[in-house]
Amino acid sequence: MFSLVKPLLFSMSAEAAHDLTIDGLSALGRLGLVSLAGKRRVDDPYTCMGLNFPNRVGLAAGLDKNGVAIDAFGAMGFGSVEVGTVTPRPQPGNPKPRLFRLEEHGAIINRMGFNNAGVDALVERLAARKFDGVVGVNIGKNFDTPVEEAASDYLHCLDKVYAFSDYVTVNLSSPNTPGLRELQFGAKLDELLGQLRERQLQLQSQHQRYVPIAVKLAPDMEDDDLRQVADQIVASELDAVIATNTTLDRSAVNGHPLAGEAGGLSGSPLTKKAAHCCQVLSDQLAGKIPLIGVGGINSGEVAAERIEAGADLVQIYSSFIYQGPELIKDAAKAIKKLRS
Ligand SMILES: Cc1cc2nc3c(=O)[nH]c(=O)nc-3n(C[C@H](O)[C@H](O)[C@H](O)COP(=O)(O)O)c2cc1C
């Protein structure tokens, strides 16, 4: 199926192809036809953050921002789907064009800017899902909320999605929301994580259910900063680290006509950098809390390498756009093989 539709999708602008795909997958879900999207899921159960994942390959945040195609992505074989980033209020994101394919590099540059329909719309979609895998909700702040008030946006989203998510990801690492990455450091990070932990425990007693919180980091940090942040997340008693988001570094695509586009770079040029971050974080975390590896996972071999670099689970976005559902199967099989 994917090999039939790929030429059509790649003949369109990246964002038009994205919208058409999401609309199509969403329609399959509404019509109860998600098996048409599908591949059988590789069965490789794994427990992480106290949750039972059917396999260790997940869809990374940003593809299904509004949670409209969770069932279809599940039918393609993902063991988990992370929806969002969602913000308290709907927002349009940055002006178009804001999404670019660098096909020769198997890469994407995006400066979408958290375009999303807002947390209330997402909650409705979450409540309607049928997918039996794990669903994470990635939360962020509205672009016009000052960074000093970011905590109130994160707490608002956490309150709203708590009852409907298996885990929640706090996105501190998008390069497309001014000031967001500042929250990854020092006292600002401690303050935010402390408030999130406190609210998580309140919500736990209110809902009689514990929903783990993961923190998603950027790849553009020095190793010492990564180690420091890892220690802060552990000290805050949050539940997992996700590494990494897109990179601002263009060295791997130098000379490409689109290399100068503003935004975050993802896909194959990110493989090495994200793998390095994963290794540094896993050494520092030393198994105290789980680590989810994402960034440039473009083959079964690279997926297995990320697990060997210390990740408990992996997530994929850009290479899934280029390779389709076959990559999910390749990645899940390669990871399963590590245990046999
Ligand atoms: C178009 C696009 C939009 C994205 N939007 C989000 C987002 O809203 N929230 C987020 O945490 N990550 C977002 N990401 C980052 C991905 O989740 C992932 O961390 C990153 O792309 C690296 O993985 P990859 O190389 O497999 O794409 C986005 C990535 C792309 C390409």
UniProtKB/TrEMBL annotation:
<dbReference type="InterPro" id="IPR013785">
    <property type="entry name" value="Aldolase_TIM"/>
</dbReference>
<feature type="binding site">
    <location>
        <position position="138"/>
    </location>
    <ligand>
        <name>FMN</name>
    </ligand>
</feature>
<feature type="binding site">
    <location>
        <position position="171"/>
    </location>
    <ligand>
        <name>substrate</name>
    </ligand>
</feature>
<dbReference type="InterPro" id="IPR005720">
    <property type="entry name" value="Dihydroorotate_DH_cat"/>
</dbReference>
<feature type="binding site">
    <location>
        <position position="85"/>
    </location>
    <ligand>
        <name>FMN</name>
    </ligand>
</feature>
<comment type="function">
    <text>Catalyzes the conversion of dihydroorotate to orotate with quinone as electron acceptor.</text>
</comment>
<keyword id="KW-0288">FMN</keyword>
<feature type="binding site">
    <location>
        <begin position="110"/>
        <end position="114"/>
    </location>
    <ligand>
        <name>substrate</name>
    </ligand>
</feature>
<dbReference type="Pfam" id="PF01180">
    <property type="entry name" value="DHO_dh"/>
</dbReference>
<keyword id="KW-0560">Oxidoreductase</keyword>
<feature type="binding site">
    <location>
        <position position="176"/>
    </location>
    <ligand>
        <name>substrate</name>
    </ligand>
</feature>
<dbReference type="GO" id="GO:0005886">
    <property type="term" value="C:plasma membrane"/>
</dbReference>
<feature type="binding site">
    <location>
        <begin position="245"/>
        <end position="246"/>
    </location>
    <ligand>
        <name>substrate</name>
    </ligand>
</feature>
<feature type="binding site">
    <location>
        <begin position="61"/>
        <end position="65"/>
    </location>
    <ligand>
        <name>FMN</name>
    </ligand>
</feature>
<dbReference type="GO" id="GO:0006207">
    <property type="term" value="P:'de novo' pyrimidine nucleobase biosynthetic process"/>
</dbReference>
<feature type="domain" description="Dihydroorotate dehydrogenase catalytic">
    <location>
        <begin position="47"/>
        <end position="337"/>
    </location>
</feature>
<dbReference type="InterPro" id="IPR005719">
    <property type="entry name" value="Dihydroorotate_DH_2"/>
</dbReference>
<dbReference type="GO" id="GO:0005737">
    <property type="term" value="C:cytoplasm"/>
</dbReference>
<feature type="binding site">
    <location>
        <position position="244"/>
    </location>
    <ligand>
        <name>FMN</name>
    </ligand>
</feature>
<dbReference type="InterPro" id="IPR050074">
    <property type="entry name" value="DHO_dehydrogenase"/>
</dbReference>
<keyword id="KW-0472">Membrane</keyword>
<comment type="subunit">
    <text>Monomer.</text>
</comment>
<feature type="binding site">
    <location>
        <position position="65"/>
    </location>
    <ligand>
        <name>substrate</name>
    </ligand>
</feature>
<comment type="pathway">
    <text>Pyrimidine metabolism; UMP biosynthesis via de novo pathway; orotate from (S)-dihydroorotate (quinone route): step 1/1.</text>
</comment>
<keyword id="KW-0665">Pyrimidine biosynthesis</keyword>
<dbReference type="InterPro" id="IPR012135">
    <property type="entry name" value="Dihydroorotate_DH_1_2"/>
</dbReference>
<feature type="binding site">
    <location>
        <position position="267"/>
    </location>
    <ligand>
        <name>FMN</name>
    </ligand>
</feature>
<feature type="binding site">
    <location>
        <position position="296"/>
    </location>
    <ligand>
        <name>FMN</name>
    </ligand>
</feature>
<feature type="binding site">
    <location>
        <position position="216"/>
    </location>
    <ligand>
        <name>FMN</name>
    </ligand>
</feature>
<keyword id="KW-1003">Cell membrane</keyword>
<dbReference type="InterPro" id="IPR001295">
    <property type="entry name" value="Dihydroorotate_DH_CS"/>
</dbReference>
<comment type="similarity">
    <text>Belongs to the dihydroorotate dehydrogenase family. Type 2 subfamily.</text>
</comment>
<dbReference type="GO" id="GO:0044205">
    <property type="term" value="P:'de novo' UMP biosynthetic process"/>
</dbReference>
<dbReference type="GO" id="GO:0106430">
    <property type="term" value="F:dihydroorotate dehydrogenase (quinone) activity"/>
</dbReference>
<feature type="binding site">
    <location>
        <begin position="317"/>
        <end position="318"/>
    </location>
    <ligand>
        <name>FMN</name>
    </ligand>
</feature>
<feature type="binding site">
    <location>
        <position position="171"/>
    </location>
    <ligand>
        <name>FMN</name>
    </ligand>
</feature>
<feature type="active site" description="Nucleophile">
    <location>
        <position position="174"/>
    </location>
</feature>
<protein>
    <recommendedName>
        <fullName>Dihydroorotate dehydrogenase (quinone)</fullName>
        <ecNumber>1.3.5.2</ecNumber>
    </recommendedName>
</protein>
<keyword id="KW-0285">Flavoprotein</keyword>
